[in-house]
Amino acid sequence: MNNLSQLCRLDGRVVFFPVRHHSPAAARLVREAARQLRPRAILIEGPFDFNPHIEQLYLGHRLPIAVFSYLRTPEGLHRSAYHPFCDHSPEWQAVLAAREIQAQVEFIDLPWGDLALGEEAVVNRYADGPLLRGKYLKLICERVGVDDLDTAWDTIFEIPRLDLPTYLQR
């Protein structure tokens, strides 16, 4: 069993749950995992700076919604980002599951200002270009028999209705 498999074991003291943003399969299974494991805390990739306001997410919003992060420095530099949530967002389902099981919930990305100022030359820090051109993903696509990562993801994770252990093993 490799190190990643060890991190994703359901019987660990800490369980890492890898997701793809806006994946219906990941959204369903992260909520299932929370219900099954009933952790004391759920830590989610999201804007750390929003933690003092996280209760606002439970105000009965009509999805989709987004948390907007904005920075303006005294020198006039502007940076902004949207952190979107919809019904099939694993992050959103984790927020809801935390409330349901009465677990502490927090976003754990670095503070937005730190991220934004550290990336002056970056247009889109989440761009997939270099990742999509990598040898590893090309090999996955070849083995699955598809042409691109989106189709590979759908074939491996979205189309089959996976159970929780199978999802984490894959």
Describe the fold and architecture.
The protein is an alpha+beta fold and 170 residues long. The protein has two domains: 3-127, no CATH class; 128-158, no CATH class. The protein is built from eight helices and four strands. It has helices at 3-7, 24-37, 90-101, 112-117, 129-132, 135-144, 149-158, 164-169, and strands spanning 41-44, 65-72, 78-85, 104-107. A hairpin with a 5-residue loop joins strand 2 and strand 3 (78-85). The model has no long low-confidence stretch (mean pLDDT 87).
What distinguishing features does this structure have?
single chain, 4 strands, alpha+beta, 170 residues, two-stranded antiparallel sheet, 2 domains
Blueprint (SSEs and pairs):
Elements: H1 3-7, H2 24-37, E1 41-44, E2 65-72, E3 78-85, H3 90-101, E4 104-107, H4 112-117, H5 129-132, H6 135-144, H7 149-158, H8 164-169
Parallel strand pairs: 1-4
Antiparallel strand pairs: 2-3
What is the count of helical runs?
8
Total strands: 4
Mean of all residue-level pLDDT scores:
87
Q: What is the structural class?
A: alpha+beta
Order of helices and strands: HHEEEHEHHHHH
What assembly state would you assign to the polypeptide chains in this entry?
single chain
- How many discrete domains? 2
Poorly predicted runs of 5 or more residues: none
Rounded to an integer in angstroms, the radius of gyration calculated over CA atoms is: 18 Å
Spatial arrangement of strands, main beta sheet: 1-4
How much strand? 5-15%
